[in-house]
Specification:
Elements: E1 2-4, H1 6-12, H2 63-70, E2 81-85, H3 89-100, E3 104-109, E4 120-122, E5 128-130, H4 141-149, H5 153-156, E6 163-167, E7 173-177, H6 186-194, H7 200-211, H8 214-220, H9 222-231, H10 237-242, H11 248-263
Length: 273
Amino acid sequence: MARLSIAASALLLASASAFAPVSLTAKTGTSLPLRMSTISADETFASEDAKKQIGNDAFLNTNLMQRAMDGPAKKNQEKLKIGIVGAGLAGMVAAMDLADAGHDVEMFELRPYVGGKVSSWTDKDGNHIEMGLHVFFGCYYNLYGIMKRTGSFDYALRVKEHIHTFVNDGGKLGALDFQFPIGAPVSGLQAFFKTEQLEVEDKFHNAVRLGTSPIVRALFDFDGGMDMVRELDDITFTEWFTQLGGSRGSLDRMWDPIAYALGSVDCDHISAR
């Protein structure tokens, strides 16, 4: 197992450094500039909106971005020595909050690089390779706040056209093109209607399944839609998708590649949630 100080870990992977703490000293004695909270230790901290940071409210709570930007907002009076196992995004953010609160933090990571599922690298041909599907949606307030806090928001996000490309056997390409003047769910429905990945019958069943999904209900009944999402945690995506006629062909040609990108497992094993 590699034993990494947070500052040294952040240098191993450029794309992951956007999330790495900037206020620690490496084991070798090499120090980096400190960026600590400006709140003094004698100031009190109270969160009147704590209940809005959990449950359905959290998805629409834009204040979470400011919370992520501010960090713990106070220095702890007692300095603790804390070890964190795993240098993925969650581990690095936890380490940053603890370091900004005044604690001595050390991270332990099995791999020779940091970032976990959000790590990426450039291969010998100059291609940008990612560990998984990295998509940033507008409601990711916590993530955007962390990026603003580390000074990476303005340069680390790579805006691209909203097209998902599929590479099939023999090199034939297919795509889901979500570019459309009208947003979701219309943009998604037209993308599935036009895609070369599905046959006409499969397109119909995909439209029925997506049209009855929690995403569509949430557009009109947000709490009801989110309740539906939570109820899907006990069945697989395959079970949910085939309930209204979804075919194995659709799963093989479209949904399995998406599931592998999201969670490194196929639709028979990934949660429908």
